[in-house]
Amino acid sequence: MSQSPPVEASRRRTFAIISHPDAGKTTLTENLLLAGGAIRAAGQVRARGENRRTRSDWMKIERERGISVSASVMTFDHEGLMFNLLDTPGHEDFSEDTYRTLTAADAAVMVLDAAKGIEPQTLKLFEVCRLRDIPIVTFINKMDREAQDPIELLDEISSKLALDPAPLFWPAGSGGRFKGMLDLRTQQFLPFAKRTADNKDEGHPKPIAFSGNAVASYLDPDERAELEEGSMLVQEASKPFDPQAFLEGHMTPVFFGSALRHFGIDQLLAGLGTYAPAPKAVAATRSAAETHVVPGDPEVTGFVFKVQANMDPNHRDRIAFLRLCSGRFQRGMKLKVQNTGRQLSVNAPIMFFASDRELAEEAFAGDVIGIPNHGVLRVGDSLSETGLLRFAGLPNFAPEILQRVRVKDPLKAKHLKKALEGLAEEGVTQLFRPQFGADFIVGAVGQLQLEVMADRLANEYQLEVLFEPSPFAEARWLTGKEADTKDFIDKHKTAMATDIDDQPVFLSKSAWELGYVAERYPDLGFQRTRERG
Ligand code: G4P
Prior knowledge:
By secondary structure, the protein is of the alpha+beta class. Helix content is about 30%, strand content about 30%. It has 14 helices and 34 strands. A hairpin with an 8-residue loop joins strand 14 (about 300-310) and strand 15 (about 320-325). Helix 2 (about 25-35) packs across helix 10. Bound molecules: guanosine-5',3'-tetraphosphate (G4P). Guanosine-5',3'-tetraphosphate binds near residues 25, 26, 141, 142 and 260.
């Protein structure tokens, strides 16, 4: 039996994992699901991934490149808490997509490879979390391999991220000499079991008191002294863990382990349960007046942070991922889209459990439900029972690549328009319609986005397209008083376009031209991002 909305919301932990490729995000995801009882044997996530890839054409690109392009969510119930794990795409070209996914997360786990520390993509993703004040839990992975000095890893977190690291555990060695770790809060030692000579994984022994004699079976006197000294030193040198500072984004609790060997995972999951925040109040407007939506509010509200097409080729549907912010959602209820006023009956909402999708009978703040629809829902849409609530929009970023796109078969021009609009609504690429000329211009943050687009146009819409250079280098959304913008548009017709929502966009040929024009029109805004919704 479910409880009231505030009680249900308080047991939600909605989080994402961020990492540089290869640090171990997939392995950690798998092992967290294992620790949470969502799957029985490690290996299922990948198997399921393969399965999904063979079912879905456009995932071919994922397989060929060996990267994860799509984002999904997985839900599991563990020790009285409901965990929602959002999967963020790993490749840097998809930072926009990642950014949107992180808007739906209440906390993030930052995975570091113990041998590599903070890598470029870790830093980028961290910055996105900081922009949104998302508290970060650090997991230092691959301790079973030769690692950097853990003190240096903490220094790096502190200097590169300006974040106070607060270790909750301290490792005994690394690589071939990795013996386990000390829980700094309880002074329990957690022994790490190597694989047996015939490469079997027999599980790790139970934690034991560090002060007792039993530790001698795992650590020789030198190793014990080193761990004792190291742990005392680090506790003197670092600030004690302060949950409030963590929630405010100034401090990160640090966990160590080996995702591959399922070591330190139960502790990480328990840490998330104890310290990661339940859903909070979210800023919004109600009929243009500023307000806060509290998870316990009776009205069901939420926002769409991702739209994914063709997850199942048997159903040519799109799934909008709705992050709920308040109320008790029940299957079959009617929700209204704030910006269009359209009402939809949510009869087949989906929740994504590790092994399968299931119809969601009920859901609460913090949960993510998938709503199948035929293009009614867009990224950034706010949904609620009254239709009056609007959450701050999700931004579109100024693209760094602008290309003309043409279809090889001219008879299919109309199809192309529809297909490009569909992909732009999903947020795969941006679409600009110049005032002059029949060509479309697509915008992307990175080259890979265009490849995904071409692949999807070929596989889902049977359209062979050509990309050609466009004369434009920069796109900026135009803002200002109506008369001023109209005057500007009239004078710059050949450089004007509209985006998918019919908003005016100025396309300039160079950064220099953009600067020059912006200086001449000080009353107008040339925006790098635009909030949708
Ligand atoms: P990603 O999603 O962040 O890109 O990383 P992923 O989990 O795919 O892990 C990247 C590689 O690192 C994989 O090896 C994986 O097995 C390994 N790995 C992850 N966690 C650990 C760990 O705790 N210890 C050790 N020793 N290795 C770890 P691979 O050889 O590239 O792939 P695979 O053939 O093992 O699948």
